[in-house]
């Protein structure tokens, strides 16, 4: 059974008077443990698609079944609960909560799952991303690469079945970017998580198992590497 | 699904970082809470003190009073002691200077007050005055006005007295009563000899009783209620007075609480607008939380809990400051207080303040906080997404409803009358809407009509008012409402005083001579004519009582059920009426017509003051039987008149036609116009010297008294308005600090682009100048409107715009805003650009 199934999904925005179709009849399935890259030119609808897959937004038409749950049948709060149970996120601009320390940022998903060992587990994850000594620092006291490492630790904290990453290295220099990629792939392998990655970076895409390229809201190509 | 412990943990984590910012939000609320708690505590203490000092308030256990001699009373033999007083208004003169003034003369016999003392300087004067001799105790205000000292003499009627002491305080008297009618005490035995006790004098006879400790005075008054009612004797017990005084001060303190509440509401607008900025900054974090699986309600609670914590903090601060504020209040209200007010912590007031503060902060913060519910997790991927989808939250209306309900509930709690509470709520809503409308309108107009040809600095500074996250409108509203309160007060006060002063300029009467006896009137008129003064009006006055209305006598009226009964005061009142067949120019006929009395046997038609008829429910055509010196006189109500009070004139509730009262005993009022103050003083001193029973009032004296009273009242109102201004300033300061980072970025960008620091500073200063101008002008505009409405509908005076005062106010408020902005801005400009790059200034 696939962990994510996208069927006839379209997304239309009402911009001004005329509707703007950003995604048009998208179909694909992802198997557990699979590593997928979504590529395409700017404005092609990658981020929109990722948002729909992760249940951040709802499709105009079609169906998204994430971890056995049909997203379009759930309301926002129910989708939030699905996200907490089975989804992890890594963002281009890190998206750490600025008022929380690194450790607390990682603790949030665990606490939401009501895990008693949130602190210990979070500390462990920070250790894995090599930031144990920065646990009490606030995001502004960390460099971009460090922030992204914290956000990776947070993404894996709730042991998600599927991990979504939108341009995770987009804001970082090449060297740091490669470090981050390595970290994501290593943790992914270790935890056996499914990975959906949006990127411009062809090299990065090549490191995954499968590449879907979209253009003008349509799937151009869907191939296994 | 809702994990409150986690919400609390998160709130506290956030709180750590947000504390100083959140503190700014509630800062604007603290003043309002402080004012509320201060006033409320003061009111509570006052209530307690009135309770404790109620005997000193009356000075006796029981007071009887009537407008004719009390004679023997059944209570005389039951009391331990009694003391008699006759009081009336009369001129007193200071022979040393020849100056005179209308005062309240009190003839005293016995040991009144039995509780409390007549406080005098020197202290022993209170005692030596009672040892007999022609001695007087004179109100300190009067002494000051005429530069008199103890040992000088004072002339009351035909007799001269030595001033034995200066009166500091009389039981039950306040500074205001002393201003209107300063008291002069003289021994009762000289009463007759003053020649002032005669027909036409408005005498009040009072008898004070002292009873044994624990004597049931209430029961006693019950026993004799009927007898006294019959004789029109008014009995006043300590309990009555305590109730009355308590009630009127409760009303006062409630009124002031409402004023403080307005300051609090102003602060709440500040809270809402600051929280709005706060929320906008937090939207990104909320989106992340939503991504991590936090439900929208939980996310909102995380921030609401922080606001609640801060609200609690602010309320506690406010309550502390408010409790301290009490120290000031007795000084502020000194002239209005009949008792010494103690100071103590009032826990009810503190509780009241805390609850109000929490409610206000939560309700007003909820409005912007609701946006959090609408944040899409998509915003983490695409930040613009957070800007869409607001405003449609149906809960918003619920919160707005909640705010209205709260304002209504609060005012109902204080006013205990749902109509009045509704009125107040309406007033608040309209005032805020009006200000917001003015603010928005002005901003729109600037945008719309701003010439592009303006200098760059001017354009840039105006554009700054529209920067994202600007708080311009709420600043205009808060500072504006504060300005509006103060300026309305100024304008109304000015208007009233001007009206009185202007009256002298035109060909209007400015001097009134009254209590002229029938045999004196020709001679007095002669004196005026001899001085070449016009007799503008010669008004005969006849006193009478009302016997029956449409056949219903006082007795009959008493037997009626409450809802059908007419006011007892109708029957107990002594009517002072005049007669003429024409209207004078301060009068206007509103209904019916004046009908002269032609032949004996004709019906007598009288004309009533319309508002008095309204109050007492008398209709056109009603049959009124008056008692004129023991003789019944049947009349019908033929017309209603409206009387304007804006000029020196006599005002009569009842006007008779000529030829009816010509033979009744009467006295007279003469009205004239002097050319200047000097002449007024001369005439007054001559008349008072020659005819000591005649009272003289000149416009100058009225204006002076009016000025003094208005000064005292306005001091109190200014004190209250001060809270609103202070709140406005705090809102301003907090908004300045909130926008600091943004301003820094802007100014550094400008400097990077090559603007000199002088230009940047000019732009900043201009921005505050515009902000201050807009706010104060909105306020002034609103207060012009309020003054216009007040003068037209309440005082019935022509509206005169006080442009000079308005300009001064405008300049002061604008300067204040510019100064604050400049203080804040100069620090920004000194910051090196690098600091901005690192972020988080
Ligand atoms: N709320 C919206 N309303 C209207 N149009 C939108 C909205 N959100 C996105 N779009 C449009 O949808 C299209 C796809 O946007 P999307 O962000 O998915 O592209 P992308 O492939 O992620 O591009 P990039 O590589 O630049 O991030 C764009 O043309 C964008 O303008
Ligand atoms: Mg994108």
TrEMBL record, chain A:
GO terms for molecular function: ATP binding; ATP hydrolysis activity; transmembrane transporter activity. It comes from the Bacteria. The keyword Cell wall biogenesis/degradation does not apply. SMART domains: AAA. Keywords: ATP-binding, Nucleotide-binding, Translocase, Transport. GO terms for cellular component: membrane protein complex. Pfam families: ABC_tran (PF00005). Residues 4-225 form the ABC transporter domain. PROSITE patterns: ABC_TRANSPORTER_1, ABC_TRANSPORTER_2. CDD domains: ABC_MJ0796_LolCDE_FtsE. Gene3D superfamilies: P-loop containing nucleotide triphosphate hydrolases. PANTHER family: ABC TRANSPORTER ATP-BINDING PROTEIN MG467-RELATED (PTHR42798:SF2), LIPOPROTEIN-RELEASING SYSTEM ATP-BINDING PROTEIN LOLD (PTHR42798). Belongs to the ABC transporter superfamily. Macrolide exporter (TC 3.A.1.122) family. This is ABC transporter ATP-binding protein. The lineage of its organism: Bacteria, Pseudomonadati, Bacteroidota, Cytophagia, Cytophagales.
TrEMBL record, chain B:
Residues 258-377, 719-833 form the ABC3 transporter permease C-terminal domain. The chain crosses the membrane at residues 21-43, 255-279, 300-325, 345-370, 395-415, 421-446, 473-492, 715-738, 768-795, 807-825. GO terms for cellular component: plasma membrane. Its main location: membrane. Keywords: Cell membrane, Membrane, Transmembrane, Transmembrane helix. It is a multi-pass membrane protein. InterPro entries: ABC3_permease_C (IPR003838), MacB_PCD (IPR025857), Membrane_comp_ABC_pdt (IPR038766). It is found in: Cell membrane. Coiled coil: none annotated. Signal peptide: none annotated. Pfam families: FtsX (PF02687), MacB_PCD (PF12704). PANTHER family: INNER MEMBRANE PROTEIN (PTHR30287:SF1), MEMBRANE COMPONENT OF PREDICTED ABC SUPERFAMILY METABOLITE UPTAKE TRANSPORTER (PTHR30287). This is Permease.
């Amino acid at each position: 059974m696939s962990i994510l199934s996208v069927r006839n999904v379209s997304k239309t925005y009402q911009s001004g008077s005329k509707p703007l179709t950003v995604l048009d009849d998208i179909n694909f399935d992802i198997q557990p443990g699979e590593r997928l890259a979504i590529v395409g030119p700017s404005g092609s609808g990658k981020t929109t698609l990722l948002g729909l897959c992760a249940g951040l937004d709802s499709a105009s038409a079609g169906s998204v079944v994430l971890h056995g749950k049909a997203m379009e049948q759930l309301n926002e709060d129910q989708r939030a609960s699905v996200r907490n149970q089975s989804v992890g996120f890594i963002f281009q601009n890190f998206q750490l909560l600025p008022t929380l320390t690194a450790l607390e940022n990682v603790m949030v998903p665990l606490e939401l799952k009501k895990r008693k060992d949130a602190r210990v587990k979070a500390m462990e994850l920070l250790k894995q991303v090599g930031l144990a000594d920065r646990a009490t620092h606030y995001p502004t006291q960390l460099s971009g690469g460090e922030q992204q490492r914290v956000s990776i630790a947070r993404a894996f904290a709730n042991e998600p079945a599927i991990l979504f990453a939108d341009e995770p290295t987009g804001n970082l220099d090449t060297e740091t970017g490669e470090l981050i990629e390595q970290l994501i792939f290593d943790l992914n392998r270790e935890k056996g998580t499914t990975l959906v990655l949006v990127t411009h970076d062809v090299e990065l895409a090549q490191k995954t198992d499968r590449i879907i390229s979209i253009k003008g809201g349509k799937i151009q190509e869907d191939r296994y590497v | 699904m809702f994990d409150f412990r986690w919400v609390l943990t998160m709130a506290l984590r956030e709180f750590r970082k947000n504390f100083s910012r959140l503190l700014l939000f509630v800062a604007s609320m603290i003043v309002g809470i402080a004012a509320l708690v201060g006033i409320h505590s003061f009111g509570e203490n006052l209530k307690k003190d009135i309770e404790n000092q109620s005997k000193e308030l009356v000075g006796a256990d029981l007071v009887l009073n009537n407008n004719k001699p009390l004679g023997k009373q059944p209570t005389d033999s039951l009391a331990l002691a009694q003391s008699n007083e006759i009081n009336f208004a009369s001129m007193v003169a200071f022979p040393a200077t020849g100056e005179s003034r209308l005062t309240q003369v009190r003839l005293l016999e016995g040991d009144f007050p039995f509780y409390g003392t007549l406080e005098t300087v020197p202290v022993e004067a209170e005692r030596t005055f009672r040892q007999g001799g022609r001695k007087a105790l004179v109100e300190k205000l009067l002494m000051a006005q005429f530069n008199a000292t103890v040992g000088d003499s004072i002339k009351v009627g035909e007799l001269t007295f030595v001033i034995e002491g200066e009166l500091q305080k009389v039981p039950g008297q306040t500074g205001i009563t002393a201003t209107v009618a300063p008291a002069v005490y003289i021994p009762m035995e000289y009463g007759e000899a003053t020649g002032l006790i005669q027909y036409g004098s408005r005498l009040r006879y009072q008898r004070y009783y002292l009873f044994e400790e624990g004597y049931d005075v209430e029961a006693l008054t019950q026993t004799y209620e009927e007898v006294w009612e019959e004789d029109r004797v008014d009995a006043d017990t300590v309990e009555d007075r305590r109730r009355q005084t308590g009630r009127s001060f409760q009303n006062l303190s409630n009124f002031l609480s409402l004023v403080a509440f307005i300051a609090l509401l102003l602060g709440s607008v500040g809270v809402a607008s600051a929280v709005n900025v706060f929320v906008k900054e937090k939207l990104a974090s909320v989106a992340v939380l939503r991504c991590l699986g936090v439900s929208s309600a939980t996310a909102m609670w995380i921030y609401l809990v922080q606001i609640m914590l801060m609200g609690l903090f602010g309320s506690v601060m406010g309550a502390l400051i408010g409790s301290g504020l009490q120290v000031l209040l007795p000084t502020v209200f000194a002239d209005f207080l009949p008792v010494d007010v103690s100071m103590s912590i009032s826990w009810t007031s503190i509780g009241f303040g805390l609850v109000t503060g929490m409610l206000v902060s939560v309700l007003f913060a909820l409005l912007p906080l609701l946006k959090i519910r609408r944040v899409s997790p998509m915003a983490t991927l695409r930040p613009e997404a957070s800007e869409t989808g607001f405003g449609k939250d149906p809960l918003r209306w619920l919160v707005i409803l909640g705010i209205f309900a709260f304002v209504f509930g609060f005012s109902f709690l204080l006013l205990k009358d749902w109509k009045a509470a509704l009125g107040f709520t309406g007033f608040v809503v309209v005032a805020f809407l009006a200000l917001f409308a003015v603010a928005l309108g002005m901003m729109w107009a600037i945008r719309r009509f701003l010439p592009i040809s303006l200098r760059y600095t001017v354009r840039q500074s105006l554009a700054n008012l529209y920067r994202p996250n600007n708080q311009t409108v709420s600043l205009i509203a808060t500072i504006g409402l504060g300005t509006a309160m103060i300026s309305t007060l100024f304008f109304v006060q000015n208007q009233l005083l001007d009206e009185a002063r202007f009256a002298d300029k035109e060909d209007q009467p400015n001097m009134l001579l009254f209590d002229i006896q029938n045999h004196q009137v020709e001679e007095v008129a002669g004196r005026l004519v001899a001085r070449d003064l016009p007799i503008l009006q010669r008004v005969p006055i006849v006193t009478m009582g009302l016997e029956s209305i449409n056949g219903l006598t006082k007795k009959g009226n008493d037997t009626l059920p409450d809802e059908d009964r007419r006011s007892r005061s109708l029957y107990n009142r002594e009517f002072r009426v005049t007669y003429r067949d024409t209207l004078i120019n301060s009068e206007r006929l509103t209904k019916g017509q004046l009908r002269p009395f032609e032949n004996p046997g004709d019906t007598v038609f009288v004309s009533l003051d319309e508002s008095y008829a309204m109050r007492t429910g008398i209709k056109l055509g009603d049959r009124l039987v008056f008692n004129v010196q023991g003789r019944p006189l049947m009349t019908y109500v033929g017309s209603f008149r409206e009387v304007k009070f804006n000029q020196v004139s006599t005002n009569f509730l009842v006007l008779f036609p000529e030829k009816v009262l010509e033979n009744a005993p009467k006295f007279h009022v003469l009205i004239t116009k002097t050319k200047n103050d000097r002449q007024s003083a001369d005439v007054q001193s001559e008349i008072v010297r020659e005819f000591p029973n005649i009272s003289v009032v000149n416009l100058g004296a009225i204006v002076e008294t009016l000025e003094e009273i208005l000064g005292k009242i306005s001091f109190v109102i200014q004190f209250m308005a001060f809270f609103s201004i202070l709140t406005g300033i705090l809102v301003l300061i907090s908004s300045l600090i909130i926008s600091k980072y943004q301003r820094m970025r802007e100014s550094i960008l400008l400097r990077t682009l090559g603007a000199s620091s002088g230009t940047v500073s000019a732009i900043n200063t201009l921005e505050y100048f515009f902000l201050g101008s807009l706010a104060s002008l909105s306020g002034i505009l609103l207060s012009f409107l309020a003054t216009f409405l007040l003068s037209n509908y309440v005082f019935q005076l022509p509206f005169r715009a006080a442009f000079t005062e308005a300009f001064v106010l405008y300049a002061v408020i604008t300067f204040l805003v510019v100064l604050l902005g400049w203080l804040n801005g100069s620090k920004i400009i000194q910051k090196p650009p690098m600091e901005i790059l690192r972020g988080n200034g």
